[in-house]
Amino acid sequence: MKTTLLLKRGKKAQIEDLVEFAIAAILMGVLVLVITVLLSLPNTELGLKGKVIGTVQDFTPSKACDYYLMNLLRTENSNVSFAETAAYTKINPDYIEIFKSNVTKFLENNYKRGDNEPGGIWQVSLSSGLTNPYVVFGNLTAINALDTCSKTIPSLTGGAPIIVRLALQY
Amino acid sequence: MKSKKGQLDFIIVLVVIIAFMLVVTQGVNTTATVGFKQTTALKAYSEAEQAREYFKLAARYSIYRVASEHGGLGENCFAVITSDDLRSEVKSTLRSSYIASGYQTGYSDLNVTTPKDIQFDILRKDNKFVEYEGKGDFISVSTAGINYTAALYFKDTVTCDQYNEFVQAAKTQLLVG
Fold first, then answer.
1. CA quadruple A13, A18, A20, A21: dihedral sign
2. pLDDT tens-digit map of A114-127
3. So what CATH class is A63-168?
4. Annotated domain spans of chain A
5. Is this prediction's pTM over 0.90?
6. pLDDT in tens, A82-92
7. Contacts of B141 in chain A (CB under 8 A)
8. Dihedral of CA B117/B152/B108/A134: which sign?
9. Which of A63, A125, B9, B165 could share a disulfide with A133, CB 3.0–4.6 Å?
């Protein structure tokens, strides 16, 4: 009688153990599934992955450098664009000072970066093709420039084009 | 009693698993450089713009050169040449001196190709100024996975004041006869 009761209790306990095991296995399966899904999500607020620290591609020429140089070359003084004056420097040395004066005035009045104060630190140079610059001016040493950009303009005679380069401090 | 022990075991295992997953997933911050393609596309766009500007200036200088070869000067500087001659000679100068050699970029990482021919028209007005317009096939700027194309087009006006400035600048040269 006692033995039968023990056997009956043992079977009941085995079934209970099986049920407990099954419930635990299902719960763990669900947990693993949820974590797997969360890990596969993109790095949003819902995802479990850490933050993505994005660094914008640091490049030169910057858009700002391009903007100033393109505007500079299109600017006119007495209906003559600075690009034309730059071309005249190749055929008439008198225009070197005119070009320098025009560009200096333009950058002193328009060039603003960071502190929003006009007249930042810059350098402008003119070279014929890939040769060394024949005109260099400005208050920045090009080797210290962190941002440089250039534009190619035609020469008056159709020979090697003129490269106008702007170097900025940052 | 046995059931309570089972529950306790399950809770302990659950807490261990959650703690493990948190340790694994916490602090997995990633760094990435973003915007390379975007900034490269901006650079390509700017360069194509400059190529357009280059040919617009080249056409202007071609007009100066042709007018100076015919001795144009003063307020009616374009009176010295007929419209047809001006058109054909400017077109010829533009092609031989500028279009044939193409646009040369100042950036070694950019590959710029420009049209080998151009449709060019010029209209003389009152002998005091001319309007000119140029159209061509695509300017192509390619670099690091970016290939940007833009149609070549320009339109501008040359006045005798501008031409006379060129004459002034070129007076020491043989450009002006």
1. positive
2. 665 666 789 999 99
3. alpha beta
4. 1-53, 63-168
5. no
6. 999 999 999 99
7. none
8. positive
9. A125
